[in-house]
Amino acid sequence: MDALEHLKPVVHVAFANPDADSRSMFSRGIAELCRGVRDLGSLNASAKNMHMAYSKAWRIIKSTEDALGMQLLVRDGAHGSTLTPEGLRLLELHDAIEEKLRTEANAMFEGTER
């Protein structure tokens, strides 16, 4: 039995501002929150969908926005939230890059001699 046959590569993409004091970055968790806002129309619904408290989701988004120096969400009080054009573009880039790297990593891994 090949010792590697039960393994798969895992790829994580993150965007960070190297000049920020914070280590917060746009990564998989933030992408999932943003995807929920895009699909469900509010940060609260997105947080609930992830089994996360709204207050925690709010802190994570705010910390990431501060670190990146850009607004990710437009909040409309009781009417929910939407992604800013920059937030939507960052989410799209995150997902596209992660998918491309995942495909390449799988191909490289499967191509290794075992």
Automatic annotation (TrEMBL):
Domain HTH lysR-type: 37-87
GO molecular function: DNA-binding transcription factor activity
InterPro entries: LysR_HTH_N, Molybdate_resp_trans_reg, WH-like_DNA-bd_sf, WH_DNA-bd_sf
Pfam families: HTH_1
Protein name as annotated: LysR family transcriptional regulator
Organism: Xiamenia xianingshaonis
